[in-house]
Amino acid sequence: MGAAIRSLGAYVPKRRMSNHEFEEFLDTSDEWIQSHTGIKFRHVASDDEAPSDLGRRAAEQALGRAGLSPDQLGMVLVATASGDHVGFPSTACIIQDKLGASNAAAMDLLVGCTGFVYGLETAKGLIASGAAEHILLVGSEVLTRIMDWEDRNTAVLFGDGAGAAVISHSNNGCGILDSFLRSDGSGARALAREAGGTRTPFRPGQTDRRELLLKMEGRLVYNFAVQVIVDTVTTILTRNRLTIDDVKYIVPHQANERIIEAAARRSRIPREKFFVNIAEYANTSAATIPIALNDLVEREMLEPGDLIVTAGFGAGLTFGGNLVRW
Length: 326
Ligand code: ACO
Description:
The protein is an alpha/beta fold. The protein is built from 10 helices and 13 strands.
């Protein structure tokens, strides 16, 4: 039995912050941020918004478009690296409760920015096993609350937002056809929150505030990202006996437009094949791919039968992609 994306939804907080606002308190400029990343704006959650609130909004839109009620869901999967709580309870359980998805199991996927890619294959497997008929997959992040607003190397890169997909069984040859999923834990420290877990617990008076926040080795992650986008797309095309001409769009994780341009050059795939919307949202981690898919649908850029390839990479380190027939 196959599984297909039946509908999508997205939500970003109302507050839209331009690069210029960073110029007021960081040694940076709109010109630097745009030329090094492609980012112009990001949306910032209000104090009373957490990933479950953003995710719930995206989920309600997706459910409405699918014509399903929450009690028809058999599973709520939430990909997030900035969940409402540290460790537990899962953000998925909070969204399950807010929606009233009374027949659903719920769990989080802790895969960093590759969470939605892993989630599509997880959903497909659960549908194939008969565990669920309809699955809600949400990518939701409030990264502005775990980033260091005083560090120009990272603060300008991230934003808040959520995307959601309803995934249902399908027998017509459309849907999630293939997934390539990999990890490389040797790079775990390249993208990490050093303290606050059980390895290095928070100790009042001893823990440096910055150890609780997101830290990144930017150059290392950049080089890793370019290589794994190329590897992911090439592997998916080769093992499915496809050429890039068969594919309508590659939908990459939106971390930095220059990463995408470098991957396009290295793989000799035309830049226009890569869908990019980072200018508006910055990097929303697990939410970038579902927000991008939602944008593609809302802009009427996809037709039934189109093939798309997703390509994600992120903390873990993790990477991978999906081949999807629309
Ligand atoms: N404004 C002005 N200057 C800056 C800024 C800023 N916001 N940030 C860094 N710089 C400076 C640096 O301090 C450095 O100055 P120096 O030469 O005096 O030391 C200079 O710019 C160049 O630094 P580089 O690190 O070489 O800049 P680079 O062109 O590599 O861009 C960036 C940095 C954007 C972080 C890039 O390395 C990158 O995109 N890395 C990957 C980021 C990423 O993908 N993150 C997320 C992946 S996973 C996930 O999504 C959670």
